[in-house]
Amino acid sequence: MYCDEALDAVEAVAAGEVAPDGRLAEHYATCPNCSTALASARELERLLQLRPSPKPSGQFTTRTMARVRRARWKREQVLDLGFNLAIAIVVLAAVVGVWMLVDRSGLTAVSSDAVDMVGRGLVALAQRIAPSVPVYAGAMALLATALGIWWWAERGASF
Predict the structure, then answer these.
(1) Could you tell me if 46 and 73 lie in one domain?
(2) Residue 157: which pLDDT band, with cuts at 50, 70 and 90?
(3) Is residue 21 part of a domain?
(4) What do you get for the CA distance between the two ends of the chain, in Å?
């Protein structure tokens, strides 16, 4: 066994977390440097055990949990931003791809004609509906007035 291996295990042995096995115990018994390091670590562990530990404040848990939640929220915000950017890039790439496909196939001329036709249809529909809009607006106003009067009359009645 080498001193490096024994010195790596000194803290765990001194704390009682690891029991020295045959080779490790033999090395500590024969190597003055490692046995001195183990004795120092055990003394330090004993002194730490004797020292009183400070009591946390009453708000310690609440403040700590608030900090953890805040840190988690910030981390999630960064993750959400990255996800949203990735989705936006994918959508933009899809739109550009569709646009390039439509442009290459010659459908842009057809699509502009279709847009013009739909626009003319909407204008014609609006021209047909326009004369009856005042009638519908008057009916809605009359209905709203009747409902308002009914609400006002029922509000004052107590059964």
Answers:
(1) no
(2) low
(3) yes
(4) 98
Structure tokens at 93: 């790439």
Count of domains observed in the chain: 3
Provide mean pLDDT across the span 97-108. Answer: 80
* pTM exceeds cut of 0.70: no
Give the whole-angstrom CA distance, residue 56 versus residue 53.
9
Structure tokens at 120: 């003319």
Residue 143 pLDDT greater than 80, yes or no: yes
Q: Is residue 125 domain-resident? A: yes
The amino acid sitting at 124 is A
Q: Which helix (H) or strand (E) holds 80?
A: helix 60-105
Domain holding 127, by residue range, is 109-153
Residues 9 and 40 in one domain: yes
Distance separating alpha carbons of residues 1 and 20, to the nearest angstrom = 12
What average pLDDT does range 70-77 have in this prediction?
92
Counting DSSP H helices and E strands in the chain, the numbers are 6, 0
Q: Are residues 7 and 45 in the same domain?
A: yes
What's residue 1's pLDDT? Answer: 65
Amino acid at 26: E
């404040």: which residue's tokens? 57
One-letter amino acid at 29 equals A
